[in-house]
Amino acid sequence: MDSTRSTAKPAAGIVLVADRVDSHFRDELVEFDVTSNDLTYGFGLFRQDNSMLFQMQVVPGHRNDILWEFKKSGVYTIRSTEYSGPKGIHMIVKDAVEVVGCDETEKTN
């Protein structure tokens, strides 16, 4: 994996560190390392049609990571998948991950 790291803050209390966000992922495992400073959150990566690609629970004080191999090029949005209070609706990072170079492409709306 490339040593380049990107950090995004989807909302207060949660921090995402992912290898090579907005980059080429073909034939690579991508590590999503997500940290919560306060509550348990659900971390989901969604396709453009709003269907979920994957999700994981993010627990404060624990290592929360997932390895993912993208099979299709596309643009993906990060969204909270766990109710986390009234501000939870705003826990979205639109078009946070772009995957290019795969043999197939995700369908868009």
Per CATH, what is the topology? Immunoglobulin-like
Give the total of beta strands.
10
Q: How far from one another are the termini?
A: 31 Å
Number of H/I helices: 0
- The first-level CATH class name: Mainly Beta
CATH architecture: Sandwich
Overall outline: flat
Largest sheet report: 6 strands, mixed
- Spans of at least 5 consecutive residues whose pLDDT stays below 50 are 1-13, 17-23
> Secondary-structure element sequence?
EEEEEEEEEE
Strand residues, percent: over 45%
Mean pLDDT: 76
Q: Radius of gyration, Cα only, in angstroms?
A: 13 Å
Total number of domains: 1
- Helix coverage percent: under 10%
| Fourth CATH level, the homologous superfamily | Cupredoxins -  blue copper proteins
Class based on secondary structure composition and strand pairing: mainly beta
